[in-house]
Amino acid sequence: MGRILFFVLLGVGLYVAFRIWRVGQRRDTGGAMGKPTAAGEAMVRCDYCGLNVPKSEALDAAGRWYCSDAHRRLERDAR
Ligand SMILES: [Zn+2]
Q1: Dihedral sign, CA of 18, 23, 28, 30?
Q2: Is the domain of 46 the same as that of 9?
Q3: What is the pLDDT of residues 24-41, one digit of tens each?
Q4: What's the gap in Å between 50 CA and the centre of ligand 1?
Q5: Is the domain of 45 the same as that of 28?
Q6: How far apart, in whole angstroms, are the C-alpha atoms of residue 8 and residue 5?
Q7: Which sign, positive or negative, has the C-alpha torsion 6, 11, 17, 20?
Q8: How many A from CA of 71 to the centre of ligand 1?
Q9: Count of domains for the chain
Q10: How close is the Cα of 54 to the center of ligand 1, in Å?
Q11: Judgement on whether residues 27 and 52 belong to the same structural domain of the protein
Q12: Which of 23, 34, 44, 70 has the least C-beta neighbours within 10 A?
């Protein structure tokens, strides 16, 4: 009887530990979602080569976006 009680308590203990761990995991991901990250940032398409770059790294010229200054210049010279 004592052995059965031991396994029941072990099972309950593991279940509680698992639940606490799961809640901690969910809290971690929830907090990360609120922060702006490079991966979650809005992407813009380079008007010259079509490459998608994060908006903070892209260069804009007259409403168009470019991945680099070289492409911005090349596109301007082509016109
Ligand atoms: Zn480009």
Answers
A1: positive
A2: no
A3: 887 665 544 445 555 678
A4: 6
A5: no
A6: 5
A7: negative
A8: 5
A9: 2
A10: 12
A11: no
A12: 34
